[in-house]
Design brief:
By secondary structure, this protein is mostly beta strands. The protein has 1 helix and 9 strands.
Length: about 120
């Protein structure tokens, strides 16, 4: 199961606003490669919607059957907002509904050119 944990307003290349839902997966325990200690985390992703901000706000807390999976894609540069560091990424997190298997390789063109991702 994934939970709608929030929403955000984005702009497409024509400057039109649209609403995305922020999805969060189940609690996971991951071992730190540096310390060997475990820490709690959850995978997150966004999906586009046709909702208004008001309806999107009402969706927060709703659960959907499915999971968030790591999907390989063309390499792209990502700006880490907290540090200003630019790192090269070659994956993204995506929602897969229950009963479906995702085997499609994402293309860098699927990322907004006015978002944080910058074509490598």
């Amino acid at each position: 199961m994934v939970t709608v944990s929030g929403y955000a307003v984005r702009q497409n290349q024509q400057g039109e606003e649209f609403v995305v839902l922020i999805l969060q997966g189940d609690l996971e325990m991951v071992r730190s490669q540096e310390t060997g200690n475990f820490y709690a985390t959850a995978k997150k992703c966004t999906i586009t919607s046709t909702f208004s901000k008001q309806i999107a706000a009402e969706m927060v807390g709703k659960q959907l059957p499915g999971r968030i999976v790591k999907e390989d894609c063309e390499a792209y540069d990502y700006l880490v907002p907290e540090t200003g560091e630019i790192v090269e990424m070659s994956h993204r997190w995506t929602y897969v509904p229950e009963g479906e298997e995702r085997k499609v390789k994402a293309d860098i063109k699927t990322f907004s050119s006015n978002g944080i991702a910058v074509e490598a």
